Amino acid sequence: MPRTGARTWRRRNVPGTQPARVFWVGVRETASHLPALAVAVDAAMATLGWDRERRVFQPHLTVGRVREAARAGALRSLVAAFEALPPPAGAALRHPRVALMQSHLGPAGARYEAMRRWQLE
Fold this sequence. Notes:
The chain contains two helices and five strands, in the order ββαβαββ. The protein has 121 residues and is of the alpha+beta class. It has one domain (3-93). The longest helix has 15 residues, at 33-47.
């Protein structure tokens, strides 16, 4: 999955309200499997009573987060350094499994728990 670039997200994704605190790398998935999977998951969750996602699906990998707004400058510097790197030639990732993760946010930082795992190969 070639990268499409590095980006930052603001809290609640509202531009201008707070400095960006999440560093993510977009991925380009040429076979269109990830968007189709996102649509299927969204539809399945709607049958369980969850609200449908209104945002356009953006495949990405979250690289890091900062808690304090004062560290947002360091986050921007990290994104700029990442963007300056050449993309790996011919790099492709194959994922043998997928996991449904739950984030537990707390004062000491985020803790992630795998709720369920599936083998893909």
